[in-house]
Amino acid sequence: MEGFDPGASFGHEVSQRYDDDPRGDEAETVEFLAGLAGRGDALEFAVGTGRIALPLLRAGVRVDGIELSRDMVDRLREKPGGDQVDVTMGDMSRVTTGRRYGLVYLVFNTIGNLLTQDDQVRCFQNAARHLTEDGVFVVECRIPTAPSRPGHRYLDTEQVGLDHVDLDAGRYDPLTQVLDLNHIRISGAGIRFFPIRLRLAHPPEFDLMARIAGLRLRERWGGWKGEPYDTASWRHISVYECADSAV
Q1: Looking at the structure, do residues 101 and 215 belong to the same domain, yes or no?
Q2: What average pLDDT does the structure give for the chain?
Q3: Least confident segment among 17-31, 58-72, 93-107, 188-202
Q4: How far apart, in Å, do the first and last CA atoms of the chain sit?
């Protein structure tokens, strides 16, 4: 996507509206993660505005974060309890907090923001670097459905309202596995664009990344309530553990 800067894609404007459209499964996400964390500490890669970290903190889990966007962290700090999350600024595939955790997690398709396979492998390696011997790394991501249309381009109508229409315009490169996607909102206030770039990967590729990082798959689910992962699943929640601790 010409002119797109991944490092600046979560700036001030995005940080101010990021929490306006919750997915609706945040409570289930927190319950699942809290169960894995137990009495240990947790680290969220791409902690953002604290959508998951803050309720997890309220559930009794100490949470640290790594985040690339200063604007997102500023929004986190404005929220009640936001000053209790220790955030290390930088790339989640490279920077370290200097601590180890029983739980490291990366949710909401955010691993796709790393646009090369090498960077995604480094993300797994960085997660492993932060884990205790019995710790786990949790990744949540959609199952890719790359467009199969000629030219790997598409335009979909996402929502039609009385005063607005939401469209998705996308282009997929099968060589790099990168999807250029622009969410477009047309309303009486004008036309707004929300571009994003994602590298798509299927679960077996993530499993190989985990092996490179010294991890292995412990379990995989189709939802935060323990729904089975099967051919009908639209996402996967994968729990990885240190290979040496696996039976």
Answers
A1: yes
A2: 92
A3: 17-31
A4: 44
